Amino acid sequence: MKDRNLGMDLVRVTEAAALSAAPHMGRGDGVAGDRAAVNAMRAVLDTVPMTGTVVIGEGEKDEAPMLFNGEEVGAETSPAMDLAVDPVEGTRLLALGQPNAIAVIAAAPRGSMWSPGSSFYMNKLVVGDEARDAIDITSSVSENLHRVGEALERPVEQLTVFVLDKPRHRELVREVREAGARVTLHTDGDVMGALLAAYPGTGVDLLMGIGGTPEGVIAAVAVKALGAGMQGMRAPQRDDERARLDAELDPDEMTRVLDVDDLVAAEDAFFAATAITGGVFLEGVRYDRGLGVTTESLAIRARSGSIRLIRGTHRLDAEHIFGSGSLDQVVEAVTD
Question: What's the N-to-C CA distance of the chain in angstroms?
């Protein structure tokens, strides 16, 4: 069990979530797609050989049917793992049939994932491995872009920055453009944005800006596994969030820069994602006549550095997708 690549089991989990969410693509109801993905993810997680605790999920238990913080999953065997889950990252993307909606999960040994606590938003800076030592989130946008350009041996004008298209980022977008770099704006999906910045050959060189703190921890597992670079800082966006953090943390902790080792301390961490809707990186769930359903997934293991791009072809029956052990549970949940 020590050398088992848990990531391959986790791909089964994200495949099931993606396959369950895909029928809702473009139908305008992201909540229904998210619910289907959650139920499928929960059912298949209970077949995975581990004792898992969801440390980053969808809030407290009364928020069910979402996978909630503190929920125990797995087949009650070793290893004991912390889990960060997002059954549908990009619910709005799914509802509108837009690119880059994914099912994603990250796992690390028990106690090794950073807990966001009351922090809902985080300022993030993500780059690939060649530039990981060049970034400083406390420096200006322009300075970071020039440092990354030097590390990549490319002019700033050839850099592309992933930014969430939010009102809070108007000044960030202006600074990136003034420095000469290009901006690719996305309404949602900063786990995918971090993945695009960290993974070579995607056409994205950096992720910059404020996104969800839980998504930041999930992304950190992938960034660490890829040997890439990431820094983050708490960035409260709401008065109630700021008030809670001021009451819970001292000023130094509020302004502490977190790197990938702070966000996920263990080396043997796993990341898995399956595309629901297509994008430049992974193709979404496809229904092919005569072939069943095709998925594309990514599985990464930090300790070994192994990266697997997995294309799966699935029959259109629940037992094939979910396994007979969880079949009744899934059929009841997904059709509920």
Answer: 36
The answer to whether 211 touches 164, Cβ cutoff 8 Å, is yes
Fill in the DSSP letter of residue 113.
B
Contact 206, 148 (CB under 8 A): yes
C-alpha pair distances (Å), 246 with each of 21, 168, 186, 243, 263: 38, 21, 31, 5, 20
Q: Do residues 229 and 127 lie in contact, with contact meaning Cβ atoms separated by under 8 Å? A: yes
Phi/psi of residue 149, each to 5°?
A: -60, -45
Q: What is the pLDDT of residues 260-301, one digit of tens each?
A: 999 999 989 999 999 999 988 899 999 987 678 999 999 999
CB 84 within 8 A of CB 116: no
The burial class, CB within 10 Å (0-12 / 13-18 / 19+), for 251 is exposed
C-alpha pair distances (Å), 13 with each of 18, 178, 202, 292: 9, 43, 25, 19
Query: Tokens standing for 296?
Result: 């594309």
Q: Which residue has the higher pLDDT, 139 or 62?
A: 139
Instruction: State the angle between helix axes of 327-334 and 6-21 in degrees (0 to 180), rounded to the nearest 10.
Output: 30
Distance CA 103, CA 91 (A): 10
Q: Give the tokens for residue 36.
A: 């289907």
pTM for the model stands at: 0.90
Q: What is the DSSP string of 203-236?
A: S--EEEEEEEHHHHHHHHHHHHHTT-EEEEEE--
Buried b (16+ CB within 10 A) or exposed e, 117-143: ebbbbbbbbbbbebbbebbebeeebee
Chain-centroid distance, C-alpha 180: 29
Maximum distance among all alpha carbons in the chain? Answer: 60
CA nearest neighbour of 156 among 168, 167, 145, 169: 145
Cα atoms found within 13 Å of the Cα of residue 146, Cβ hemisphere only:
8
What tokens were used for 44?
């298949």
pLDDT tens digits for range 68-92: 888 999 998 889 999 999 999 999 9
Mean pLDDT to the nearest integer, 224-253? 93
